[in-house]
């Protein structure tokens, strides 16, 4: 897989409903990050539709921009990094370990995050997270998504907390998108992978989120159970712009 590809910047910006920045500055980075999370859903539907997930940049562009789908971290942050680079931002791809409650941190490459211009943590692929980039600096940062803190560890790792709870630990070493291919495959195929448990589709919606988890549509803390397959398909189309010909189902179900 090669990352030395160009993306159609105009088509990508149209997909996320954003104007081309005049300069690659901090203000534009904030707007691009929020616009991406508003327009492009975090979703694991390919796993539940029997679709192979490819991290080839051309395949990512076709899925997310041309076919107007979403994806999970490797896909969303993987493609967003290319857009930012085309716009003139310096981008590092870094591996993270997701915190799993009492089990502690997961394996390296569990998550792909982006560091932009050496100063900002940008993440459009974690599901519920910050609406805007986080400064790589000590101290609490208030965001529509919660209260965040980036904690610098003795070994150079960075811990990201939201509302006082650990979210993930970043290894401060630059990686390539190809480095995440084995874990991307593992997330799709390991029977215990949480991505295989149920289909999820979620995006920013104003100051909150709208999520379809299985047959549960969750918006502003209110859950509506969808009765029929057609209701589910209609919800994907209406709330996420995702048009499917069948309802995603967990592998093996």
Structural overview:
By secondary structure, the chain is of the alpha+beta class. The protein has a domain at 9-181: Arylamine N-acetyltransferase fold, CATH 3.30.2140.20. Helices cover 28% and strands 27% of the residues. It has an eight-stranded antiparallel sheet with strand order 5-4-3-2-9-8-7-6, covered by helices on one side. Strands 1-10-11-12-13 form a five-stranded antiparallel sheet. Strand 8 and strand 9 form a beta hairpin. Helix 4 crosses helix 5 (73-86). The longest helix is centred in the first third of the chain and has 14 residues, at 26-39. It is globular and about 50 Å long. The two termini are 32 Å apart.
Short description:
This protein is α+β, with helices and mostly antiparallel strands. 28% of the residues lie in helices and 27% in strands. The chain has helices spanning 9-16, 26-39, 45-49, 57-66, 73-86, 181-189, 229-240; strands spanning 42-43, 91-98, 111-116, 120-122, 134-135, 140-143, 146-152, 158-162, 165-175, 200-205, 208-213, 216-219, 222-225.
This entry's quaternary arrangement is single chain
Mind summarizing the main beta sheet? 8 strands, antiparallel
Q: Name the overall outline.
A: globular
Helix content: 25-40%
């Amino acid at each position: 897989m090669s990352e030395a590809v160009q993306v159609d910047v105009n088509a990508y910006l149209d997909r996320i409903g954003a104007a081309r920045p005049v300069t690659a500055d901090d203000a534009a980075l904030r707007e691009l990050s929020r616009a991406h999370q508003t327009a492009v859903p975090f979703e694991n539907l390919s796993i539940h539709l029997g679709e192979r997930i490819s991290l080839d940049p051309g395949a990512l562009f076709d899925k997310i921009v041309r076919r107007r789908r979403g994806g999970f971290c490797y896909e969303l942050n993987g493609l967003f990094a290319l857009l930012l680079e085309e716009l003139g931002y310096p981008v590092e791809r870094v591996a993270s370990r997701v915190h799993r409650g009492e089990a502690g941190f997961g394996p390296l490459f569990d998550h792909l995050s982006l560091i932009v211009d050496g100063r900002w943590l940008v993440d459009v692929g974690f599901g519920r997270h910050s609406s805007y980039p986080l400064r790589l600096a000590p101290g609490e940062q208030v965001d529509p998504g919660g209260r965040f803190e980036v904690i610098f560890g003795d070994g150079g790792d960075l811990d990201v907390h939201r509302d006082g709870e650990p979210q993930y630990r970043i290894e401060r070493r630059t990686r390539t998108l190809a480095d995440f291919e084995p874990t991307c495959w593992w997330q799709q195929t390991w029977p215990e992978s949480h991505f295989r448990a149920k289909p999820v589709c979620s995006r920013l919606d104003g100051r909150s989120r709208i999520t379809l988890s299985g047959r549960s549509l969750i918006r502003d803390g209110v859950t509506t159970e969808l009765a029929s397959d057609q209701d589910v398909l209609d919800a994907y189309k209406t709330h996420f712009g995702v048009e499917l010909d069948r309802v995603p189902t967990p592998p093996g179900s």
